[in-house]
Amino acid sequence: MEVSAFSLAQRFVGLKETPGTVSNAMVLGFLQLDQSWPTNDEIPWCSAFMNYIAWLLRLPRSKDLRARSWLNVGTPIQLAEAKPGFDIVILSRGDDPESGHVGFYAGMEGGRIVLLGGNQSDSVRLASFDVNRVIGVRRLLG
């Protein structure tokens, strides 16, 4: 049986940051996979989660904590071509050209894009976003 990145990511649904001065060791592990400097789970970790899932499955990954680093991974595709559970989506965050968010494409719902990702309300979960925030869709395989 082949495990997809999406199905593996689903196993982490419900994993949350630990509030206060103590960090969730799993989230800290995601962050420290490619960067040694994070010392707590209070920094954005959506890209770290994606990198961890890709690392476990030996898929291409960004090796970077910036969500927009995923714009350089895999093959660019149009949103209309995206397959739920198969592709990743990179979103803008505000007006900052460096900030963003990344997650696994789960589909569309009511004109909004649904992603499975980390650091969505400080946890791994499904969340919907304005489709106008999409700045890239990438296919890791194929």
Overview of this protein structure:
The protein is of the alpha+beta class. It has one domain (5-139): endopeptidase domain like (from Nostoc punctiforme) (endopeptidase fold (from Nostoc punctiforme)). It is 18% helix and 25% strand. The protein has a six-stranded antiparallel β-sheet with strand order 1-6-2-3-4-5. Helix 2 (25-32) packs across helix 3. The protein is globular and about 40 Å long. The two termini are 18 Å apart.
What's the topology here?
Layout lengths: L4 H6 L14 H8 L13 H11 L18 E2 L11 E5 L7 E10 L2 E6 L7 E6 L3 E6 L3
Antiparallel strand pairs: 1-6, 2-3, 2-6, 3-4, 4-5
Mean pLDDT: 94
Per DSSP E runs of 2 or more residues, the count of β-strands stands at: 6
CATH superfamily assignment? endopeptidase domain like (from Nostoc punctiforme)
Overall geometric form: globular
Search tags:
142 residues, single chain, alpha+beta, endopeptidase fold (from Nostoc punctiforme), 6-stranded antiparallel β-sheet
